[in-house]
């Protein structure tokens, strides 16, 4: 019996991700971040691409940063894995592979199941606006992390 | 996919035939951080054509435009179809105001305003292919059908649009989902949502959703009964209904416990039962635990109670108190209490299949109701299901009675040593019984009046001392059967 209860609770993971998918397609939010499934056929709704538009008045301005977000089976109980694809110099992002350090990003470090992919992307964008980040020298536009 | 807007239920906008393009027209919202425009375009058009329209509307050069949809940058050479851009969806736009190199557009080399030397066009395209090949699938298939699940939802969301008037089935789900995780009562509210019920009554969809969930797959591996259950849409629906009401869920679990307890009282059967359930419960617990990060409680649809500790002193409060002071609801109390009293002699609380928390049902019984008179009543009841039926008013009690009647059968099987080797069968039978019972109870509750639906809660409330039945009922209706919330309401309005 409790199996079914578990089942009922787990199905919501998919509901939730589908809902995030729809939000991404409808452009919920302020339009400075975008997200969607990496592969439309991904039934598990695991791999997502994200895009952050560099905030104005920072060194990231007008750049578009592509990311990969991976929502594991425990999402949204567990935070997603986030990785920059576009090269970026940002505190909390590994210089070598673009992986976002969970401890450096508050939304990931203190993850709550009410957070979403959008929240993570928006937080990363906010980090770009921080004093400690906004003037960091950046690699030439268009470069990507080698994975 | 050749789509006629007439067949797509989600299309609300007018289809404007534009001589300039073939195919159906769709209206796409183009959003910049500052601005938002709706642009009508043929759904077959390319990104370049789309940009043409956009550049007119936004008064910007085409090569200044960068379009983003669902986290991907749209290349001029792509088509809208390719990215799954449909009517009513939103595309993000960035207008590069400074003469930076554009993505996929004509090549320019210049310094960015931020001072970082810009790579020239030869490097830029790498960003584009990267963005668009990031998906890893290369050219996405022409048919950008969302996963089956989503198309299932698509249909249902249109249903919801019509039926509910809410913008978005998904939004509702999200809200509910969020709250669900933190607030168990939300589960019942969710289930009350006619939309959800709609979906629940689509067993194929539910099955799909469930089966594709990796956790479920694990579960299914460990417990083949689940696949069996999944193949039985009736059962699933029943489970869903059951899950609607957290109080019912608890009740169910307790009932199962009680049924087990009954069996326990039969000499020989007790041991077999215990063994059997130990076999079952272990894998279930570990399945539950690992999926929920050692928090079996979340597996139970949120908390059985707020702030629950995995101890035996699991909440007594929300437990419907059918075995309240014997005078209050004698019929129910006798029935349920007796079984717990029986188990009280069993002592320790090995967690049962339905009781991953190791709730000591007997402990509860003891605390609330330890009269040996109940035992005899219990026996009477098990001998005479009719008697119980007459006495019981709560729907679930009726089911419990059925289980009691059937239990002696099980018990005899249980005492059979072979039963221990067929735990899954026993389990399955028991579970099916339970589910049926509660389907009977749950299904019944769907059609009953609030008063009858909330009968159990009403009894609880009155057992707790809220004697104003009218007020109780009102509170329950207002809170949708949520006892705790109802109590708060009642306390808010009356000093006692």
Automatic annotation (TrEMBL), chain A:
Read off the Gene3D superfamilies from this record: Ubiquitin Conjugating Enzyme
Q: Which domain of life is it from?
A: Eukaryota
Q: By its UniProt entry, which PANTHER family does this protein fall under? A: UBIQUITIN-CONJUGATING ENZYME E2
Per the UniProt record, one Pfam family is: UQ_con
Annotated protein name in UniProt: Ubiquitin-conjugating enzyme E2 variant 1
Q: Which gene encodes it?
A: LOC109891404
Signal sequence, start to end: none
Q: Which UniProt keywords apply?
A: Ubl conjugation pathway
Which positions fall inside the UBC core domain? 12-147
SUPFAM superfamilies documented for this protein:
UBC-like
Automatic annotation (TrEMBL), chain B:
Pfam families the UniProt entry points to: UBA, ubiquitin, UBQLN1
Supply one GO molecular-function term.
polyubiquitin modification-dependent protein binding
The UniProt record lists the UBA domain at 447-493
Residue ranges of domain Ubiquitin-like in the record: 26-96
Instruction: List where Polar residues composition bias occurs.
Output: 405-424
Q: What SUPFAM superfamilies is this protein classified in?
A: UBA-like, Ubiquitin-like
Q: Name one GO biological process term.
A: DNA repair
Task: Cite the SMART domains for this sequence.
Answer: STI1 (SM00727), UBA (SM00165), UBQ (SM00213)
Which InterPro entries does its entry note? Answer: STI1_HS-bd, UBA, UBA-like_sf, Ubiquilin, Ubiquitin-like_dom, Ubiquitin-like_domsf
* Cellular component per GO, a single term: endoplasmic reticulum
Which spans does this entry mark as compositional bias, Pro residues?
Answer: 319-328
Keywords from the named record = Chromosome, DNA damage, DNA repair, Endoplasmic reticulum, Isopeptide bond, Phosphoprotein, Ubl conjugation
Tell me the segments the record calls region Disordered.
Answer: 101-157, 296-358, 405-426
Localization of this protein? Chromosome; Cytoplasm, Perinuclear region; Endoplasmic reticulum
In this chain, composition skew of type Low complexity spans 105-122, 131-157, 333-354
> Tell me, how does this one assemble?
Homooligomer. Binds signal sequences of proteins that are targeted to the endoplasmic reticulum. Interacts (via UBA domain) with GJA1 (not ubiquitinated) and with ubiquitin; both compete for the same binding site. Interacts (via UBA domain) with ubiquitin and with polyubiquitin chains. Interacts (via ubiquitin-like domain) with PSMD2 and PSMD4, regulatory subunits of the 26S proteasome. Interacts with ATXN1/SCA1; interaction with ATXN1 inhibits polyubiquitination of UBQLN4 and interferes with PSMD4 binding. Interacts with HERPUD1.
Any idea what this protein is called?
Ubiquilin-4
Protein species of origin: Oncorhynchus kisutch (Coho salmon)
């Amino acid at each position: 019996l409790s199996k079914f209860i578990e089942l009922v609770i787990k199905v919501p993971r998919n509901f939730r991700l589908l809902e995030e998918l729809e939000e991404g397609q409808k452009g919920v939010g302020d339009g400075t971040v975008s997200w969607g499934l990496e592969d439309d056929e991904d039934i598990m709704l695991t791999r997502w691409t994200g895009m952050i538009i560099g905030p104005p008045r920072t060194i990231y301005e007008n750049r578009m940063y592509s990311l990969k977000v991976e929502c594991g089976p425990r999402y949204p109980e567990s935070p997603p894995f986030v990785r920059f694809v576009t090269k970026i110099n940002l505190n909390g992002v590994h210089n070598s592979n673009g992986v976002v350090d969970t401890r450096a990003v508050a939304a990931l470090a203190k993850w709550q199941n009410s957070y979403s992919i959008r929240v993570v992307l928006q937080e990363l964008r906010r980090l770009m606006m921080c004093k400690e980040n906004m003037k960091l020298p950046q690699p030439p536009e268009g470069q990507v992390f080698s994975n | 996919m050749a789509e006629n807007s007439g067949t797509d239920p989600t299309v609300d906008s007018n289809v404007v035939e534009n001589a300039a393009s073939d195919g159906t027209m769709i209206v796409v919202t183009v959003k910049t951080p500052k601005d938002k425009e709706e642009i009508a375009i043929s759904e077959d058009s390319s990104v370049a054509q789309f940009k043409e329209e956009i550049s007119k509307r936004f008064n910007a050069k085409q090569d200044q435009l960068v379009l983003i949809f669902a986290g991907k940058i749209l290349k001029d050479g792509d088509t809208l179809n390719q990215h799954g851009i449909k009517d009513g969806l939103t595309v993000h736009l960035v207008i590069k105001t400074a003469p930076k190199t554009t993505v996929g557009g004509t090549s320019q080399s210049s310094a960015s305003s931020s001072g970082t030397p810009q790579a020239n066009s030869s490097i830029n395209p790498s960003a584009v292919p990267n963005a668009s090949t990031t998906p890893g699938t290369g050219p996405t298939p022409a048919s950008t059908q969302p996963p089956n699940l989503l198309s299932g939802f698509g249909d249902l969301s249109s249903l919801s649009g019509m039926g509910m008037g809410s913008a978005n089935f998904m939004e509702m789900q999200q809200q509910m989902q969020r709250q669900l995780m933190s607030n168990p009562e939300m589960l019942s509210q969710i289930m009350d949502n006619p939309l959800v019920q709609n979906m629940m009554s689509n067993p194929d969809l539910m099955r799909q959703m469930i089966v594709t969930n990796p956790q479920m797959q694990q579960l299914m591996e460990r417990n083949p009964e689940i696949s069996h259950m999944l193949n039985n849409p009736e059962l699933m629906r029943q489970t869903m209904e059951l899950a609607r009401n957290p109080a019912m869920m608890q009740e169910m679990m307790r009932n199962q416990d009680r049924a087990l307890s009954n069996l326990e009282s039969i000499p020989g059967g007790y041991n077999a039962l215990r063994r059997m359930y130990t076999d079952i419960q272990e894998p279930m617990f570990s399945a539950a635990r690992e999926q929920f990060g050692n928090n079996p409680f979340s597996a139970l649809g949120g908390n059985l109670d707020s702030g629950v500790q995995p101890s035996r002193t699991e909440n007594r409060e929300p437990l419907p108190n059918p075995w309240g002071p014997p005078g209050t609801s004698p019929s129910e109390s006798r029935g349920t209490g007796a079984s717990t009293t029986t188990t009280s002699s069993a002592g320790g609380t090995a967690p049962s299949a339905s009781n991953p928390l190791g709730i000591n049902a007997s402990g509860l019984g003891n605390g609330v109701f330890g009269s040996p008179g109940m035992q005899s009543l219990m026996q009477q009841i098990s001998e005479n299901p009719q008697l119980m039926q007459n006495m019981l008013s709560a729907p679930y009690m009726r089911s419990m009675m059925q289980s009691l009647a059937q239990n002696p059968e099980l018990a005899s099987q249980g005492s059979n040593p072979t039963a221990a080797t067929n735990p899954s069968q026993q389990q399955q039978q028991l579970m099916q019984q339970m589910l049926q019972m509660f389907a009977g109870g749950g299904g019944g509750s769907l059609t009953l009046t609030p008063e009858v639906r909330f009968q159990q809660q009403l009894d609880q409330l009155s057992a707790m001392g809220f004697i104003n039945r009218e007020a109780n009922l009102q509170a329950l209706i207002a809170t949708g059967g949520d006892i705790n919330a109802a109590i708060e309401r009642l306390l808010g309005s009356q000093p006692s």
